[in-house]
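User: tokens in, sequence out, please.
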């Protein structure tokens, strides 16, 4: 009996330590890191720092018990939902550009077509995919035991996804990334489709940069409020 009680106590201590380590990782990656990048680093260092955090997140995802990269391919893309999301993105983006900077409408297409084509080609792989890996599988699979119920976890995910864009110091970016985060988290966690989350994220980027909102997501335009 004493041996059994000792083993149970040891297991409980191990679980507590694991949980504490997961909390430390979670707070660092999704809270402290984006705030530190936004507050302390110059604009030129923001993306290298975020790349380093992303690399750490991918390493931790790889080390997550039970995670398999092949599992990310499961889940179908519901193209009707993607089309509806794209239409909503276009409507909102057009309205925001008209209200804030009408001269920027389709500006990247008109004035730097080659850059626009590069964004269209590389945004899904270099931006949407890495962000989705960190903010969806890593968030929900590695730290699932720390999260509240599904609905609250989806909202928390969207809020932290918005926080990750704090470095732009722009309320338009904050609001749009929050609602985008809701859509991406819903696709992954509720619809159980990582491919759909990536496709929707890529579509959002294509729409934003095509219509003219790319200026809000450009570190060269960052103006800190302090």
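Assistant: Sequence out:
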């Amino acid at each position: 009996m004493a041996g059994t009680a000792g083993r149970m106590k040891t297991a409980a201590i191990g679980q507590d330590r694991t949980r504490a380590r997961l909390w430390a990782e979670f707070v660092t990656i999704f809270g402290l890191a984006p705030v530190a990048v936004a507050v302390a680093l110059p604009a030129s260092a923001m993306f290298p720092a975020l790349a380093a955090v992303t690399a750490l997140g991918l390493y931790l995802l790889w080390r997550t018990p039970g995670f398999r990269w092949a599992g990310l391919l499961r889940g179908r893309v519901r193209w009707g939902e993607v089309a509806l999301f794209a239409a909503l993105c276009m409507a909102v983006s057009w309205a925001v550009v008209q209200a804030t900077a009408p001269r920027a409408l389709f500006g990247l297409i008109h004035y730097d077509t080659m850059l626009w084509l590069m964004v269209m080609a590389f945004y899904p792989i270099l931006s949407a995919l890495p962000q989705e890996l960190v903010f969806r599988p890593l968030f929900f699979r590695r730290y699932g035991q720390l999260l509240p119920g599904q609905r609250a976890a989806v909202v928390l995910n969207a809020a932290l996804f918005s926080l990750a864009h704090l470095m732009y110091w722009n309320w338009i970016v904050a609001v749009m990334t929050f609602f985008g985060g809701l859509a991406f988290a819903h696709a992954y966690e509720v619809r159980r489709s990582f491919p759909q989350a990536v496709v929707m994220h890529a579509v959002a980027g294509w729409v934003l940069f095509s219509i003219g909102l790319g200026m809000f997501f450009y570190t060269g335009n960052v103006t800190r409020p302090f």
